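Final paragraph of the annual report: two paired records, presented back to back.
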Amino acid sequence: MKNQLLFLVEDNPLEVDLTLHALKTGKLENQVVVVRDGEEALGYITKWDGGEATPFLILLDIKLPRVSGLEVLRKFKSHWAYRTIPVVMLTSSSEEADVRTALELGANSYIVKPVNFERFVELTTALVHYWSHIHTGVRTTPGSIQNPRP
């Protein structure tokens, strides 16, 4: 769907450019918010609580400065209002411990970035298309979920 917000958490400028180029090449018209470290990513919880548009999908790297991607994932998935936002770990790490930990913390998918650009474009296009057009799930928007706490 056009104009849905995609949240990309990636510290490597080349990887950011490749991802944005892949989205453009795949003719995906999503608005993309890019943050470059885990601390900045966690700051968005406050912005979303303040009414800023929430993403339909978070693409999250593991190896991030200041706060690791796994810690970011843990905090996103433990937040009562944003735990339903799909998080796809899009990373170069194929370490079994990273995969296991990410899935245990609630990652919806774990994808090791392909080295081949054409394959990266195909993969990025397919995963964004899946989460924006095919997947049926809860869409989190400000005010759509009530705080279960009294």
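The closing record of the year follows.
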Amino acid sequence: MSSLRKITGVCIIAFILAGCEKDDLVIPIGDDDDPISFMDDVLPILSQHGCVSCHGPSLSENGLRVDAVSELLMGGNSGAAIVPGNSGASLLIQKMSANPPFGERMPLDRSPVPDAQQNIIRQWIDQGAQGN
């Protein structure tokens, strides 16, 4: 490609971007149909926010473990934590919300899980909550 064509391409992109507000620039992060992985996407979120420290192999508060899909399906004292295909009916999501249906918001005494990360978990559940 000639230098003139490269410069022209860069100028066109610069003019387009100059006319955009920062909120107009959307960077795609994946399709809603892209499979979400429990091991690669969901478990790191649960670990980052301390969920696994209270609901993991060492300590399982209220009988709940969140470190494996089988444990989430089995649930704890309040029942199954996830309903594959239905994030809205999943206690895991309900308890992360600002106004959970019972008890306190989780993670307890920590900052809330950001909406973007909750959406990843929702998407994983809605995709069937596979153990991949």
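The CA atoms of residues 49 and 111 lie 8 Å apart. This concludes the annual technical report; the extension proposal builds directly on these records.
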